[in-house]
Specification:
alpha+beta; 4 strands; 32% helix; YCII; Alpha-Beta Plaits; 4 helices
Length: 98
């Protein structure tokens, strides 16, 4: 899994103007089984998406399609993560491998 942590590069009003497209993008990731959870950082300076992928390259390839990235509104860093405790301990992939 990879935590994709974004930082907004433009004023919040510009980011929010593209939010509907970003949320549609996230819904697609969820439907395909790639996104485990996502949300905005508080205060709203970026956000976090937890992706169920095996490599950092996969994470970056998926996130490159985010409207925020395509419009230069946000940049993401990737941090690999293996949940060992709590609600996600023992998480099972829901995406069917092709």
């Amino acid at each position: 899994m990879y935590l994709m942590i974004s930082t907004y590069l433009k004023p919040l009003a510009e980011v929010d103007a593209a939010r509907a497209d970003h949320l549609t993008f996230l819904a697609g990731l969820e439907e395909a089984g790639y996104s485990v959870t996502a949300g905005r950082i508080d205060p709203p300076t970026g956000g976090i998406i937890l992706l169920d992928v095996d490599t950092e390259a996969e994470a970056h390839a998926l996130i490159a399609e985010d409207p925020y990235v395509k419009q230069g509104l946000a940049a993401y860093t990737a941090t690999g993560w293996h949940p060992a405790r709590g609600a996600l301990a023992g998480y099972q992939r829901i995406r069917k491998e092709s």
